[in-house]
Amino acid sequence: MDLQLNQILNLSSEEIDNSKIEFNMQAGSGGQPFLDRWLKHSDAEKISGTCTDCSYWGWYGKQRNFYPGQWVFSFARMTDDEWLLISVAEIICVPDDEWAKINVLERYAPLFGRLIIKCKKGNTFSRYVFNLSTYLEQATVKEILPCLYSGETFEGYDRVHLPYHRLSDIFNGRILPTYYEALKKITGVYCLTDTHTGKLYIGSATGEEGVAQRWGNYLDSKHGGNKKLIALYEQKGSEYFEKYFTYTLLEYFGLSYDPIKILEREQYWKMCLDTIRNGYNDN
């Protein structure tokens, strides 16, 4: 039998009626996941539930999310239906267009960064606030981690799909260190997607440090030395790439795999996706 969330929170009826639940997903469509924001904070801030820019945004347009005296249980999305508790606090005040001023509820501090729940919320982006009672009965406890969640999970080469900001955070050592090490161990064929126009660029990585080396070039230059991407960079600038580009691994091989065969696979994908005529490839 599933463990219900309130079997862990032990809230009274009065406390439930006075509480909100905050589902933090990502900062707008295509924006940075709030979990990644949380991961970049210090362990001390995570443990204390005081990570700024992660919880307790006070407004939804002109609508106030919280009122003084309310309790708020703040969760960050891990996967579609799994959420990590990152803070619980009492609202002190809600300045206009600002994060709310809060007092962290110390009784729940041992669960910060450790309690994972399962709750169906849907795939819409952004952050949403509801009365806790709306979700309390359907939210179940998946697990309580033995230590603070670190985000050090590589889901497999067949699931590598990273927006620019996430790739940058990984390569700069701010999140998911195992991800970078994994990308150093393989060569392969990849796709860059311009999510603003839908145009694609197909490339390949055959260097000594594999995909990590090639994608690092894109982080440094944005265009990677490719003709059409250079033209886009000169027209739109670096912020365009940071906002709209994603990086997806299509096929992967060992570091010793024949680079000629990798180039053949690169041409195959260019043909399949028509990226020379309708994308950013020029040959």
Description of the structure:
The chain is of the alpha+beta class and 283 residues long. It is built from 12 helices and 13 strands. Strands 1, 4, 5, 6, 7, 8 and 9 form a 7-stranded mixed sheet that branches. A 4-stranded antiparallel sheet has the order 10-13-11-12. Strands 2-3 form a two-stranded antiparallel sheet. Helix 7 packs across helix 8. The protein is elongated and about 65 Å long.
List the helices and strands and how they pair.
Layout: H1 6-9, H2 13-17, E1 19-26, H3 34-39, H4 43-48, E2 59-60, E3 63-64, E4 71-77, E5 82-93, E6 101-104, E7 115-118, E8 126-131, H5 132-136, E9 140-144, E10 161-163, H6 164-171, H7 177-183, E11 186-194, E12 200-205, H8 210-221, H9 227-236, H10 238-244, E13 245-254, H11 259-273, H12 275-278
Parallel strand pairs: 1-4
Antiparallel strand pairs: 1-8, 2-3, 4-5, 5-6, 5-7, 7-9, 10-13, 11-12, 11-13
Question: What's a quick, concise take on this entry?
Answer:
With 283 residues, the protein is α+β, with helices and mostly antiparallel strands. 31% of the residues lie in helices and 28% in strands.
Question: What brief labels describe this structure?
Answer:
283 residues, alpha+beta, seven-stranded mixed sheet, four-stranded antiparallel sheet, 13 strands, elongated
